[in-house]
Known about the structure:
It contains seven helices and 17 strands. The chain has helices at residues 31-44, 56-64, 133-138, 142-148, 158-167, 174-180, 215-228; strands at 2-4, 7-11, 18-21, 46-49, 69-70, 85-89, 113-120, 128-132, 152-155, 184-187, 189-191, 198-200, 207-210, 235-238, 245-249, 253-257, 266-273. The strands form four sheets. Strands 1, 2, 3, 4, 5, 6, 7, 15 and 17 form a nine-stranded mixed beta sheet that branches. The longest helix has 14 residues, at 31-44. The chain is globular, with a radius of gyration of 18 Å. The mean pLDDT is 95.
Amino acid sequence: MSSDHSIVVRPVTANIGAEIRGVDLREPLDDTTYGALRGALEAHQVLFFREQDISPAQHLAFAERFGQISVAPFGPKHPDFPEITVLDQVQPKGEGADNWHTDNTFMPAPPFGSILRCELLPELGGDTCFASGTAAYDALSPAMQEFLADKRAVHDISRMLKKAITIGAETAAFEKMAAVWPPHEHPVVTTNPNSGRKCLYVNGNWTSRIVGLTERENDALLPMLIDHIRNPDFQCRLRWEPGTMAFWDNRWVQHFAVADYGGQRRVMQRVTISGEPPR
């Protein structure tokens, strides 16, 4: 556990996650607090804040302190704040959040960060799990790391967009959206420019194939790499409470919304922060 002035950073696991105490997110962040949170995010990859009774405007203001807002291309939005994506679910199984993924990697420059807060929770369930892509990479064999070093993968909006349209979470025509957001290639292994650590950068929602491999090779390798993130050694789990917020570095972290509350309503609001093309 470490602290900076009144800020307390309490690690959740050895590989990922920390709870932050001593910050009131209703107030603008001064430079010292901002620097402490950036450092904690770099060290722990996902930060959890408790007892934060903030408004949508304050949610946005907190996110804007860390960069320009990246508006999600599809999905329901807040009626007064179109920068905020609203995740309102009653029957969540199979809708996509219950799959290990990184947010919006179909974009040429996926978001740097995502900040999620709860509006309405089921009586039980609805936890979110987070996994470290850097820990997942470190656990690969040296031979696999070497093989993947120069590989690139295609990230495609198509499958998740079709699912969103089917369940009524998106009303735009598929052909129009797919034309605006064509598939993009990203490295299979990315590098943190600050620490030099490597990250396994494929996920089940958006990654469609590894470039240069045959269909049969992709059928064998890509599912294995996507499944690799499911190792509990790389993970932490957040049990939501009223006033809880999670802020994760979308470059290195995947997440999974546990869909164990069917028939009850769970409402979350998410803001994403613009990023750069993965390298």
